Amino acid sequence: MQEERAENINESVPGAGSAAVESKREVSSIQFPYGDLDDAVDFAKGVHAVGGQSCLIEQLAGHLRVAANGGAFRARLAYPRIFGLCEYERGSVTLTPLGLRIVDPSQEEAARVDAFLTVPLYRAVYEKYKGYTLPPPAALEREMAGLGVSSKQTDKARQVFDRSAKQAGFYWAGTERLTLPVVKSKPDTRPIEPPSTTTHVGSGAGNGGDDDLALDPLLVELLKKIPSTGEQWPAAQRVRWFRTFAMNVSQIYDDDSSPVDLKITVESVSQTGQS
């Protein structure tokens, strides 16, 4: 989830948490990746190349020509999740709706903007200095420390932030400030709206209805994936949908001052004794 503490980025991915744990005495309380946006996008494109929407972690490692159990690779698995591009479950990696957009050449430019702003630290810096000149490197590192970055990792956090901002297009008007990129919609693609924009859809996830609900576009796209009544929807696919939906709800609605760790569990219902 977006609001998990940094040391709990993804307990199901061995080594993922180590990328955010700076020391036993001081731990960052805000999420940020140790790898830049390009690195996270490479992972997402690797998943797409191997399995379309999902693949096994070992298959992804094979595609990237690295050892699946290598410490560096396992640590790098955390980066695309912090950018909101992937999620992990039982040895597999699955692209999120944002991840699917970023591997689409016609939507990648806009998706990079959303991915940058998905990182809690980057969004906090952007919101604080939107329309203003960024402070010099040393001062920016102190700002990051105030936002929750471990004092021993502010230099690393700032360097990766700087590279990711450039890769997402936020320096198009100059490197002294973060400026929201101007993204033009391309033929055969729907316009990409800012992360905070809501969309009105009919009740019933597009199946009709008189009432309008104001929902984030990401949630709308997920609701559209629900099969029509009467169609098959296997339990494993339903669980994956619920977890993806919960992750996006957390990213959209959670308050930075009130972290929420939401977990979805699945229990089998015994049929013993039923006629």
UniProtKB/TrEMBL annotation:
Organism: Methylocapsa polymorpha
The name this protein goes by in its record: Uncharacterized protein
Location of the region described as Disordered in the Swiss-Prot/TrEMBL record: 1-20, 185-208
